[in-house]
Amino acid sequence: MYSQDEINSAIAAGALTQEAADALRAHVVQVRHRPVTDEEHFRLINSFNDIFVAIGIVIMLLAAGAIGQAIGGGIFPRPEAIDWAVASDAEIASYRQGTWLRESMSVAFAAILVAATSWPLAEFFTRNRRMALPSIILLVAFVGAVFAGFVGLSLAMIGNGENMDRVGAVMIALSGLFAAGAAWLHWRRFMVPITVAAGAAACAVTVIALILAALGPKVIDDGESLILGLVFIAGLAIFAFAMRWDMSDRERSTRRSDVAFWLHLLAAPMIAHPIFHALGVTDGGTIGIGGALGVIAIYVLFGIVALAIDRRALLVSALAYVLAALTFLFDEFGAVELNFALTALVIGSALLTLSAFWSPIRQKVVMALPGDVQGRLPATALATA
Questions:
Q1: Does 1 share its domain with 136?
Q2: pTM for the whole thing?
Q3: CA-CA 20 to 30 A from 339: which of 35, 313, 332, 371?
Q4: Which residue range forms the structural domain that includes residue 11?
Q5: Could you tell me if 22 and 113 lie in one domain?
Q6: What is the pLDDT of residue 385?
Q7: 174-188, pLDDT tens digit by residue?
């Protein structure tokens, strides 16, 4: 199977004419009875060799992390044990600071070695071999390691002292900023589609941490609703960013569509979780009939949005919440023994029906929208211009 990006590369190299590529795409549409845009392609595995290489990369990165942790523990050994019953306050404080420094630097050294290992591996498996799954793993490892490394160094510098919440939030914000910079460098070098989503996530962490640092420790300790509200706003911003990439490639024939896919996959849980948390789905208690009906109504709204933008991430991210709501409703109406079976039957049938008739349903949804909006959304079978 060849990706749209590889077909475009073949056109640019002269191995395939534009007319032949268009004919191939038209043939695929005819065979599958749906436009290429509705397939929502993204590259994950080219062959079983991708899985084989991915396993090796994960083992290599785990080894690098373990070696780095051992180096950090050797340079900063564990403080000698103290007798807590007779130790003075100064001895207890010194022991805690020594333990804090050792653990923080162990994390930092492990992250540094993981980042240093993932980049040269990406030079071969991403830049030269263009392997999809290994490239994703190496990108996540590199950006995540940069973030964890700066968090470890920051914690080692600030110590385990007073006003830890506010200073720690600032340090997390700075670590997020460095991670965003690492994602940008990785994108400039390798252009792996998921990189933009990783950078967007790092930027979201930076902004949220800075806001929390400005608001103070009390909000950090007790402001779960505020934090989820900030996550929701960040999710909407990332969703809008994803739509920018989508609108620049309505035919979904370039790498920009893959970038948008990962951005939508990031934004969806950031939007869905705060909404359903506000309805009481995640607090472990009874959500009530009104809350359960609200969950289903929001899921239907998510479905309409997913059809309009031709992305399924919102539906997948909200699936667990609507399962919980339907299970509660069936239980309330007396189907205690069959509530799980009925829930699975309803949701499974709905998803399969939606998948089978995605294109005609989507056409009706898109055609009901204003003309200028239709011209910005991914093309349908009836509106490909």
A1: no
A2: 0.86
A3: 313
A4: 1-33
A5: no
A6: 41
A7: 999 999 999 999 999
